[in-house]
């Protein structure tokens, strides 16, 4: 799993943002998604000094998880903002992209 997050608008003032990406799977016939072990990516921290257009990258290479016909895979991005005061606008805006390689076992 290789993922990127391109920063469009950085956190304000003295805030920092930690963006993560995590794979989830729902087994065939289920609507309940569970995190896939070893698929969490924590991107480098973005601050108010992070310039728009900055590309944060990360990868997780040792995911070994069986996927069966009918299983659904979901990639979720999230951000945690720290350093915000009361009433501060807590946001980071960007574009997410990722690629996942699957190998069939014989």
Write the layout of secondary structure elements.
Blueprint: E1 2-9, E2 16-26, E3 34-35, E4 41-42, E5 46-47, E6 55-59, E7 72-82, E8 93-99
Antiparallel strand pairs: 1-6, 1-8, 2-3, 2-4, 2-5, 2-7
User: Helix count?
Assistant: 0
Count of extended strands: 8
Main β-sheet: number of strands, strand sense, barrel status? 5 strands, antiparallel
Termini separation comes to 22 Å
Helix content: under 10%
Mean pLDDT: 90
Provide the low-confidence segments as ranges: none
Alpha-carbon Rg, integer? 16 Å
Helix- and strand-based class?
A: mainly beta
Write a structural description.
With 106 residues, this protein is an all-beta fold. The protein has no helices and 8 strands. The chain has strands at residues 2-9, 16-26, 34-35, 41-42, 46-47, 55-59, 72-82, 93-99. The strands form 2 sheets. Strands 2, 3, 4, 5 and 7 form a 5-stranded antiparallel beta sheet that branches. A 3-stranded antiparallel beta sheet has the order 6-1-8, with no helix packed on it. Strand 2 (16-26) and strand 3 (34-35) form a beta hairpin. The mean pLDDT is 90.
């Amino acid at each position: 799993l290789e993922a990127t997050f391109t920063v469009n608008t950085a956190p304000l003032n003295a805030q920092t943002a930690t963006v993560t990406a995590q794979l989830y799977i729902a087994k065939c016939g289920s609507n309940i998604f569970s995190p896939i072990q070893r698929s969490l990516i924590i991107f480098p921290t973005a601050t108010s000094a992070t310039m728009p257009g900055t590309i944060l990258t990360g990868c997780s290479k040792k995911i070994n998880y069986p996927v069966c016909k009918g299983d659904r895979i979901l990639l979720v991005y999230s951000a945690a903002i720290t350093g915000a005061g009361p009433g501060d606008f807590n946001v980071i805006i960007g574009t997410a992209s990722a690629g996942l390689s699957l190998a069939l076992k014989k």
